[in-house]
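Hello again,

I reread your note about wanting to compare the complex against the isolated chains. To keep things tidy I'm splitting this into two emails, and this first one only covers the full assembly. Below are the input lines as submitted, including protein chains and any nucleic acid or small-molecule components. They are followed by the predicted structure of everything together. The single-chain runs will come separately.
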Amino acid sequence: MSLEQSVEALRYLGLFSSLDASSIMSTAVHALHPEDRVAAARLLMREKSISGVPIVDADFRLVGLVSVSKIIEALADGRLADPVDSVMTRDVISLHAHDSFETILSCFQRFKFGRFPVVEDDGRLVGMITDTDVLSAIIRSFYSVYIHDQRRAVTLGSFSALSKEFESSADFVYDIRCRGLENAGEGSAQLKAFLQNKGFGEPIVRRASVCAYEAEINVCIHAGGHGSLRAIARNGEIILRVEDEGPGIENIDLAMKEGWSTATDAIRELGFGAGMGLPNIRRFSDHLVIISGKDKPTKVEMIFLEGKE
Amino acid sequence: MKLTEVLEITGAMCIVGEQLASIEVNYAFASDLMSDVLAMSRPDTLLITGLTTPQIIRTAQMLDLPAILVARGKDVPQDVVDLARTTGIVLLSTHDIMYVASGKLYARGLSG
Ligand SMILES: Nc1ncnc2c1ncn2[C@@H]1O[C@H](COP(=O)(O)OP(=O)(O)OP(=O)(O)O)[C@@H](O)[C@H]1O
Ligand SMILES: [Mg+2]
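Full-complex prediction:
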């Protein structure tokens, strides 16, 4: 799987949907004014190891950009003492603070520059985005994914295709609407009946039901009780997705540990909060992807293969 | 072990379970934490628990457990009784605490 395919897969998983320019950019911006000298731009680039200096007016509105190549030209022409105004690029390609991750990526692909200034609606410069910023945003996104599989990349690829299919043609859909624990588990019970009806064998139905149940209970006790349970079940394969509306799991690796739980005593009195739900899901599923993060929805996707018991 | 023997040994009464006489279990598992129960995957197991929430029925249903023994003689709410009936799970209740009920059954050959 190529990097481009991986990024594509992550995109379908909705991993980048919350990233916009303002969350990726660096805000420690070094800018100059048009009347500053070219020599100052050269010094700034060398000291801060940056490859381009944005030029702003008195109100910090972006008016130009001086790149390394402009400095080299100015050096050759002996114009270091001139104002940057005379050498800067004026039609700067810039991003908006609320531009989506998609827009940012396509900007890098189209223009082949190493950096883009980020401006507010009024044209004020608020940050810069370099290709390194984009890369580290992608890497940070990975921290909020848990994948249990020997062949991580392959799973990610198949899940990306799946995510689209879940939206268009799930075989089973249940809206989770829980008040407390009252009806928690009803969706999984319905799912179990559905799978039995479809003729799946007892062991795979049991594994899928147990995992659906653990995930459904988690939505009820950790995520306010609102979410959905979907299944695609065909050709000896059961694929489940349980998702909610947040508040999300801050550290998924920690949540995967046996015995780790944030459940209250009140929940424990009701029989949950052993910190065994996610570890159970890992044990009983054949492939597992969890996507979450602080203040984000949680998506749990599981695949069960018939005859894998 | 036949469920009729479980009744006898623990002095339990049967809340739901017309089908009781025909059922046998080979193992028992005692816990108040459902995910601990769910971690185990042996269908022919008797669940012994001190809880009386709807989720004890759901847990048994997911695992294909045939029967639940509620310890300490707790009152089982009507909705839980109804759920046991509709899902076809036998519901028993004993005055013994979980430890004692488990001990008695274990001593009579029902293993964990
Ligand atoms: N859907 C979710 N939304 C938010 N947080 C979650 C969600 N699912 C799990 N978590 C977090 O992950 C932790 C571990 O989950 P896990 O299901 O393993 O244990 P638990 O639910 O606390 O206890 P148990 O499942 O044994 O009853 C939870 O305590 C909670 O902090
Ligand atoms: Mg749980």
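For quick reference: The longest strand of chain A covers residues 226-234.

B.
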